[in-house]
Amino acid sequence: MQWVVVGTGALSTLWAFGLQRQGEKVTLLTRHVEDGRHLELTAEHTDGLQAQSFEVIGDPTQAGRNSVWLIIVKAWQLQAVVDLLAGQIPDNAHVIISHNGIGAAQNALLTTPDWHLYDLVTTHGAWRRSRLHSVHAGHGQSWVGPRQPGLSAVPEWFQPLRAALPPLEWDSTILYRRWHKLAVNCAINPLATLANVPNGILKNLHFQQDIRAICEEVALVAQTHLGKALPELSADQLESGVYQVIQATANNRCSMLQDIDAGQRTEIDYLNGYICQLGQDYNIPTPVNQRLWQNITALT
Predict the structure, then answer these.
(1) 151 and 239: one domain?
(2) Are 153 and 177 a contacting pair, CB within 8 Å?
(3) What are the residue boundaries of the Ketopantoate reductase N-terminal domain, all occurrences included (predicted)?
(4) For residue range 27-38, what is the model confidence (pLDDT) as tens digits?
(5) Rounded mean pLDDT, 284-293
């Protein structure tokens, strides 16, 4: 089976390494084709460093027609990636998407109705020491499932993907996982960024009131938006998930803090900003998410 991994971000690198270790054929789609036909990437784990060489392409039409596409990008980058691939890869391509937040490139994805779209949700923590050197900073877990109705059958690529970076579970109701991850990101990313601390510090009593309020606001917005009360999206369940990720990624500097340090755009509009916008649509107050959205926006 051939895989095309888009980009060389920290999590993209971890999945590419894992797939290639399983004997899968992995190609990177990247802008950095000037480096040659191959790139050597380094992944840093708790048990040491690993280096692997990957074939590189700069044009999606160079990939095999039966390739599985793995897109792990910033929310604000997804639109450009979809635009790049639209009309260039087979109409029935299997495309796995992972990004923080909800709502990114939603309209663009509606124009690709024949793609088989899947969402990958992960709580692994990772960061880049340099463009070609990624650090696996927190061992989490992942879920993948269909974005579209009618794709309930588990595809053949699931087994190698599960072996690449375990644990990975198939989840036919992946939308609820995306809302869980949204709550985690709405809490950890802005709070850790504004305090300039690694994730583990958020266990301190000082942050508990904000974390609880964020989860209550997200739970109410989510259940109103989805049109039903869901125990798995209760404030208690969301809060429990936040603290699980804080514990698992205690030494990691969250992606938003990394973006601020690098002078890059953050994903705040797709996280707390998204909750505030939905809250406005449904006349639901979201004061804590609003404050965090404004404070992070002021930093950029």
Answers:
(1) no
(2) no
(3) 3-147
(4) 999 876 655 588
(5) 98
Longest dimension (CA), the chain: 53
Clarify whether residues 132 and 36 are in a common domain.
yes
Both 196 and 155 in a single domain? no
Q: Is the pLDDT of residue 46 over 60?
A: yes
Q: Which residues constitute the domain of residue 36?
A: 2-171
Nearest CA-CA partner of 217 in 280, 299, 298, 296: 280
Token pair belonging to 281: 């649509």
CA atoms within 13 A on the CB side of 96: 24
Structural domains of the chain, count:
2
**How far is it, in rounded angstroms, from Cα 84 to Cα 62?**
13
Residues 46-73 have a mean pLDDT of 93
**Amino acid at residue number 240:** S
Domain of 84, CATH number, reads 3.40.50.720
Cite the active site residues.
Answer: 181
pTM higher than 0.85, yes or no? yes
Mean of the pLDDT values across residues 209-237? 96
58 and 204 within one domain: no
pLDDT value of residue 104 = 86
Q: What is the dihedral of CA 201, 202, 206, 212, to 10 degrees?
A: -170
Alpha helices of the chain — where are they, by DSSP H? 10-21, 78-85, 106-110, 158-164, 174-195, 205-226, 235-248, 255-261, 272-281, 287-299
